[in-house]
Amino acid sequence: MKGQHNREGKPLRTDFGLGGADVVTLNEARDLALEYRRLAKQCINPRYNGRQEIPCFE
């Protein structure tokens, strides 16, 4: 079994918002949701994956 499970053996579910309609357009929300589903399918938690800092040379 891949991924995390609760005490009953069911997969953990994480719900979180993407932002209000005045901040995120519907198309952006759909794109983010698709990206998060792809990450979840790879057993990567999208909530913590977005916080990783990417080094840049400025």
Can you characterise this structure?
- With 58 residues, the protein is an all-alpha fold.
- The mean pLDDT is 76.
- 34% of the residues lie in helices and 0% in strands.
- The longest helix is centred in the middle third of the chain and has 16 residues.
- The chain contains 2 helices and no strands.
Which helices and strands occur, and which strands form pairs?
Blueprint: H1 26-41, H2 46-49
Q: In percent, how much strand structure appears in the residues?
A: under 5%
Cα-atom Rg, whole angstroms?
14 Å
Largest beta-sheet characterization: none
Mean pLDDT: 76
Quickly count the helices: 2
Task: Compute the separation of the termini in Å.
Answer: 43 Å
Low-confidence spans: pLDDT under 50, at least 5 residues?
none
The portion of residues assigned to helices is 25-40%
Order of secondary-structure elements: HH
Q: What would you call the structural class?
A: mainly alpha
Net shape: extended
**Overall number of strands:** 0
